[in-house]
Amino acid sequence: ILDVPPGVTVCQLSLGSVTPGLPGDALLLTRLERGAEPLSVRIATRRGQPPLSEILQEFERIQREQREANACTERRLWWER
Q: What pLDDT digit, counting tens, does each position of 5-28 carry?
């Protein structure tokens, strides 16, 4: 049983593989909320899309920039970020 507090949404990004033991070939985005069935979306990384390593690097960059923005105390600068 999932015990997510009311008003909280959990989003999880996982690296998945169709074949056990092989490097991941898909991202799995899962959303968990109290009172709702978990929702998972498979994000394929096939030809024509950036390599998975590029996607993960971009995600890390976004997280880093978000942490920097959250630490900003000047309102104007926060909005610019």
A: 888 899 998 877 666 666 666 778
